[in-house]
Predict the 3D structure of the following.
Amino acid sequence: MNSRQRRGVILLLLSVLCAFGAFVGVLSVISDVNSKVGPEVTAYEIKTDVPPYTALSASQFEKISMPKRWLSENAVTDISEITGKIAVTRLNKGSLLQNDMIVKRPALQPGEQEIAIMIDAATGVAGKIKPDSRVNIYATFAGERDGDPAQSKVIVSNAKVLDVGQLTALEPDRDNKGSQATEAVPITFALNTLDAQRIAYAESFAEHVRLALIGQGGDTTIRPSDRTYTLDKD
């Protein structure tokens, strides 16, 4: 083997050693990154803003992957966890979905049925009523005959709220030229048959329907003599 061949072999060996060294270096970097980052897991990012108390569906979230060590302990990693649940607060676009953002939707009890009515945003308890709240439902009626006093009645007491919908603009009454468009919120209640009939009657024939939020632990008992009010009682 002449000197030129020896130099070629030496250069070849050096190239192999350099390549091997580079490969070992890359493996070392990857190993170091893996040791710092760790394995990746599934998480869910909110695609669009979700209002409070809205029923949740998989289409509202985007599946992503991120390092497990960067994920909070209460992050949702299984989208089936949202089944039958609602947002307990406003869910902002781009945020990661977490367990403390959602709650189970209140369920119907035996003998109950769902009924929804539109409540004027100005006469309801704005922003304070949420699923599982308890409310008294009041309705005001004009006197049946001329000269009869107007009445305010407790139509349903201690009604359980199942769902609170989104604020909706209502068209003005075409028969009343002076009326203006108003905003209302659809509120769903869990009621027995008789109370459902009462609330349906009030929505159809009462001049106004109002809700009164009952404080937690408060006395929900209403005496029969207090269920109807007229101004001449004062």
Summary: The chain has a mean pLDDT of 79. Helices lie at 3-37, 193-205. Residues 2 and 8 are 10 Å apart (CA to CA).
